[in-house]
Design goal:
With 193 residues, this protein is an alpha+beta fold. It is 48% helix and 16% strand. The chain contains 5 helices and 5 strands, in the order H-E-E-H-E-E-H-H-E-H. Strands 1-2-3-4-5 form a 5-stranded mixed sheet. The protein is elongated, with a radius of gyration of 25 Å. The termini are far apart.
Length: 193
């Protein structure tokens, strides 16, 4: 207190406000990190994929997001089918995957995760994804579709489907059955329920 008064002395400037300032900084740092990660994904993956898909009007019946796995993994990306309308077919989703592969044909990844509504289901080797991107402009799309399942893996890295030998008609039938099962396991079974 001041002499001769009953008023308490005010604390010196800066005392008492320090912990509040530090708390504010601790909130600022994680917020800044989240914004940097979101911006990184938006600029490097989401926007280029969205641009590639928007060129084809048939892609309006599905919502796709492409981002780095866990938001930061530079060698793994996620092709996340977020939503589909009742008119989306397996061929539509395959076409969208191929269009994104073509847009990213010059990028190297270890894995491309196939997810539905944020849940990882299966994965493709990045080298095969890049191969699709290089070939989609000139290769027969049926050939690319047939070869896709034998290049799909479980999340633990084990092959999800077989590769076949024998007569071309039997092999073609088995490969197309696997393509249908791939889509069922990836998104279709859940989308129908």
């Amino acid at each position: 207190m001041k002499e001769g008064t009953s008023e308490p002395l005010a604390p010196p400037s800066g005392i008492g406000s320090g912990p509040k300032k530090r708390r504010g900084l601790w909130l600022l740092v994680p917020t800044a990190i989240v914004l940097v990660v979101l911006g990184f994904n938006w600029i490097s993956l989401y926007q280029p994929a969205r641009s590639a898909l928007s060129e084809d009007i048939r892609n309006q019946s599905a919502e796709v997001a492409v981002y780095h796995r866990w938001g930061i993994s530079p060698k793994e990306i996620v092709f996340d089918l977020r939503g589909v309308s009742g008119t989306v077919s397996r061929a539509d989703v395959t076409r969208m995957l191929f269009q994104v592969a073509e847009a990213f044909e010059n990028r190297e990844y270890d894995w491309v995760i196939l997810a539905y509504k944020g849940e990882a289901r299966l994965k493709i080797r990045g080298s095969h994804f890049q191969e699709i991107g290089h070939e989609v402009s000139f290769q027969n799309p049926i050939y690319l579709m047939r070869k896709l399942p034998q290049n799909v893996y479980e999340l633990d890295g084990s092959p999800a489907f077989s590769s076949y030998t024998g007569g071309w008609l039997g092999v073609l039938g088995a490969e197309m059955d696997d393509l249908n099962e791939l889509h069922d396991r990836w998104w279709l079974d859940e989308a129908l329920h």
